[in-house]
Write a structure and sequence with these properties.
CATH superfamily of one domain: Tetratricopeptide repeat domain
Number of helices: 49
CATH class of one domain: Mainly Alpha
Radius of gyration: 34 Å
Strand content: under 5%
Structural class: mainly alpha
Distance between the termini: 66 Å
Largest sheet: none
Helix content: over 70%
CATH topology of one domain: Serine Threonine Protein Phosphatase 5, Tetratricopeptide repeat
CATH architecture of one domain: Alpha Horseshoe
Length: 890
């Protein structure tokens, strides 16, 4: 580097490089300017100056200088390397790889460039190129441990595990007998465990076990050693040895569920679906009774039998499990037992058990069959459990009765208000739920979880402004947006985005959803530094797991929700495009002069306010002192806080397609993915892609109401298409004609008959009836009245018993809301929608959407009286809290 310069300037060039590496950027700039005074066209100096400026956030100047330096010296590997570093800093990895390859053509043995190239190849998952580059590094520097390990990992990632094992064994052959020294014992032990995991992946279990036992004294992580050993013993079917080792592991950690699962496998009593014969249940019961005696303080050993026991034995085990937890006062007891509610009959047993315990505590002061009196708090936690139990089963009146009684019994327990808030949310009263959550928050202002739960309830009730003010209480310096964004607080952004979407504020909704997508891009970027760090520190097993995690990162629920919601926003933006500036001006010209003047003044004030806020933020960032490095840590100013620019897209469907492709790639088993694909491609007139979505929906769940809708809508659209003219259109028609008969629903049936058969098959389901009614109206608009009656007749399936309990098991609140919207929009029948609303207000009395008699949607006077009567004075501030929330929201 800098070889073409005289000695004095060459030394200055070395100073530039050193200053860049030590982050003394001002010093580096000074040295660069000194060289450029004498040699203004020196390419490498121009490039290094550009790289230094890039680190000082002067990107435009940086790119200009680096390109000029490259232009002046195209045959310099330094210029190409610097250009690659510039692209890498902007996450333009493919361009950076091109630059590195050009640099290597000039200097093929440059270790620094090869190392940088290998990191980018690992990041971009160019695994074959990664293996080649690591091989070059090993050839150039075979005495470097990291090069051996990197080459082995590269072959592992390329699914060539046996080659990776050979490389590690060859590396071990280069080591001395007394290796490793004390300073490298941990790293060497990790490498050995990694090698054994590779042998296990290849199926060489016997060899892996021998190698593990041979290297025991060199492995520092004894827990991982034992877990590897027991895994190999199970795979080799050495069950007795494995059972002994699992017993050892349980003595170290008796609450590890995986150890109990492994122990069950060793004794031949494990089922993934938790289905056992009577004999197996008896053997399991005996096993866990012996384990309880060994580990009496373990919670897991008492909880696991509840999963496989049935009948009276389940009741006895549940009784002995819950009693000490009720006495101790464990709020999470219901969360612990809630998975049991999915097993037939166990919810009824738990209900009767808890009612018996409650009755005994009330009448005798203690549990049944015991003389010892229980503390007063035991009754509280028993009622607390029952309230959550009734909530889970949809008995909201009983749930609220129990939780109100609990609050009256001990009004200072915060968990009671949080649970009541959750019950009201499930019952449909989102405003009251937010009020109760706020009341719980006010009882402990230092609890971040309760504050977060309160914010979520407020967002669910569309009180976004109030939610922001509450969230800001736990953010840095009161800077709500930047702090929550920097913390990657995705639950907040998703809930906020959904609220804006419900309020038809697509700009803000999109801004929140795309922020979540940006977080996932940042998480992907965050792996970059680990490509070198993990090889250096030898955390190889964790490194490979991290790479596998990153490969499936976009399949996680938060990303799927955000991307799906973004697609929905763009589809809605396409269906109802925002007015152009010309249209707005045209509308303004039609207004009277007085209204026009007021509107212009309002717009000017809004612009001035936005400008003032931006200037204030800019001044605040300028006040921050410049660090020694010369880099100014400026806070980013949001130039589009309301997402208005996001709405100004020429082709919303093209934007939606970008996110649809991501969820199609990473969530192909989700119905929502293919429903969105169908909706999008139908609007784009992409017939074959729409058909592909329909076919996937039928494969995943043909009986789903949305799958049925898409099937009927698609072939109704095809039947309405004009006769084909071009060869491509004829080909499409021929394909669809052949494929139509592959659907059993449509085989030798008209669409009307297929819809009738679907209705007959699912006539007891509300959503299936609604789907059939909607499709009947689509196929024959003259049968609108028949379709409406189909929906309204769904209530005939309800029993008076369920109605008396206030629990409509056959119906869900969200489904009834969807049906109400269907009647009001698709059928455009306001009378039917009103009748449905009145009917549902009886079924869901706490629902604010249906304005139920017990909801906060009724008048303030009626509300206050109903609350006081319902609560018996337990939460006198509830009505006031709701009113306060409404006022603050306004």
């Amino acid at each position: 580097m800098g070889a073409s310069l005289p000695p004095k300037e060459a030394n200055l060039f070395k100073l530039i490089v050193k200053s860049y590496e030590t982050k003394q950027y001002k010093k580096g700039l000074k040295a660069a300017d000194a060289i450029l005074k004498k040699f203004p066209d020196h390419g490498e100096t121009l490039s290094m100056k550009g790289l230094t400026l890039n680190c000082m956030d002067r990107k435009a100047e940086a790119y200009e200088l680096v390109r000029l330096g490259l232009k002046n010296d195209l045959k310099s590997h330094v210029c190409w390397h610097v250009y690659g570093l510039l692209y890498r800093s902007d996450r333009e990895y493919r361009e950076a790889i091109k630059c590195y390859r050009n640099a290597l053509r000039i200097d093929p043995d440059n270790i620094e460039i090869l190392r940088d190239l290998s990191l980018l190849q690992a990041q971009m998952r160019d695994l074959s190129g990664f293996a080649e580059t690591r091989q070059q590094l090993l050839t150039l520097k075979p005495n470097h441990r990291m090069n051996w390990i990197g080459f082995a990992v590269a072959h592992h990632l390329n699914s060539n595990v046996s080659k990776a094992i050979d490389i590690l064994e060859a590396y071990e052959g280069t080591l001395e007998d007394d290796y490793p020294p004390d300073s490298e014992r941990c790293e060497h032990g990790e490498m050995l465990l990694y090698k054994i995991s590779l042998l296990e992946d290849c199926g060489y279990y016997e060899k892996a076990l021998k190698e593990l036992q041979k290297q025991e004294f060199k492995i520092v992580d004894k827990l991982s050693y034992k877990e590897h050993q027991v895994s190999l013993l199970v795979k080799l079917d050495y069950r007795e040895d494995a059972e002994k080792l699992y017993t050892t592991l349980l003595s170290m950690n008796p609450d590890n569920y995986r150890y109990y699962e492994g122990l069950q496998k060793c004794v031949g009593l494990y089922s993934e679906k938790n289905q056992y014969s009577v004999d197996e249940i008896e053997r399991l019961e005996a096993l866990y009774k012996s384990l309880v005696q060994k580990y009496p303080r373990s919670s897991a050993v008492k909880r696991i039998p509840l999963d496989f026991l049935c009948g009276e034995k389940f009741r006895e085990a549940a009784d002995s499990y819950v009693r000490p937890l009720l006495t101790k006062g464990v709020p999470s007891l219901f969360s612990d037992l809630s998975p049991l509610y999915d097993q037939p009959g166990k919810a009824d047993i738990l209900e009767q058990l808890m009612l018996d315990l409650e009755h005994s505590i009330r009448s005798t002061g203690g549990f049944p069959g015991r003389v010892v009196k229980e503390p007063p708090s035991t009754l509280l936690w028993t009622m607390f459990y029952l309230s959550q139990h009734y909530d889970r089963r949809g008995h909201y009146d009983l749930a609220l009765g129990k939780i109100d009684e609990s609050i009256a019994y001990t009004p200072t327990v915060i968990d009671l208000y949080s649970v009541k808030s959750r019950i009201l949310k499930h019952a449909g009263d989102l405003v009251a739920a937010a009020a109760l959550a706020d009341e719980a928050r006010c009882m402990d202002l230092a609890d971040r979880y309760i504050n977060s739960e309160c914010v979520k309830r407020m967002l669910q009730s569309d009180q976004v402004t109030l939610a922001e003010r509450t969230a800001v209480l736990f953010t840095k310096d009161g800077d709500q947006h930047n702090s929550l964004y920097d913390m990657q607080c995705m639950w907040y952004e998703l809930s906020s985005g959904e609220s804006y979407f419900r309020q038809n504020d697509l700009g803000r909704a999109l801004k929140k959803f795309l922020a979540v997508e940006k977080h996932y891009a940042d998480i992907t970027e965050d792996q970059f530094d680990f490509h070198s760090y993990c090889l250096r520190k030898m955390t190889l097993r964790t490194y490979v797991e991290m790479l596998k995690f990153q490969d499936r990162l976009h399949s996680f629920p938060y990303f799927r929700k955000a991307a799906s919601a973004a697609v929905r926003c763009y589809i809605q933006l396409y269906d109802l495009p925002s007015k152009s500036s010309a249209e707005e001006e045209d509308e303004m010209s039609k207004l009277p002069p007085s209204q026009k003047k007021k509107l212009k003044q309002k717009q000017k004030k809004a612009e001035a306010r936005a400008k003032k806020e931006a200037e204030a933020k800019s001044e605040e960032s300028n006040v921050i002192a410049v660090s020694k490095s010369g880099k100014r840590p400026v806070k980013p100013v949001d130039l589009d806080p309301h997402g208005e620019k996001l709405l100004q897209v020429a082709d919303p469907l093209l934007e939606a397609t970008k996110y649809l492709k991501l969820i199609q790639k990473h969530s192909p088993d989700s119905l929502q993915t293919h429903i969105l694909s169908f909706e999008l491609n139908m609007r784009k007139q992409k017939i074959l892609l729409s058909y592909q979505a329909v076919k996937q929906l039928q494969l995943l769940d043909a009986e789903n109401p949305d799958s049925h809708r898409c099937l009927i809508r698609f072939f109704h659209k095809v039947d309405a298409m004009p006769a084909p003219v071009t060869d491509s259109e004829k080909l499409i028609w021929a394909v669809l004609g052949e494929e139509r008969f592959t659907f059993s629903k449509l085989h030798e049936k008209s669409l009307v008959d297929a819809n009738s058969n679907f209705l007959e098959k699912h006539k007891d389901s509300l959503m299936h009836r609604a789907a059939a009614a909607e499709m009947l109206y689509l196929l024959d608009p003259s049968k609108k009245d028949v379709a409406v009656r189909l929906v309204e007749d769904s209530s005939n399936n309800l029993s008076s018993t369920n109605l008396a309990l206030g629990a409509v098991k056959e119906w869900k609140l969200k489904d009834c809301i969807a049906v109400h919207k269907l009647l009001g929009t698709t059928f455009n029948d306001s009378d039917a929608a009103q009748r449905w609303k009145v009917q549902c207000s009886d079924f869901f009395p706490y629902s604010t959407y249906f304005e139920g008699s017990k909801s906060s949607a009724i008048s303030t006077e009626d509300h206050n009286s109903s609350v006081s009567a319902h609560n018996n004075g337990s939460v006198s501030s509830n009505g006031n809290t709701i009113e306060r929330l409404k006022d603050l929201a306004v």
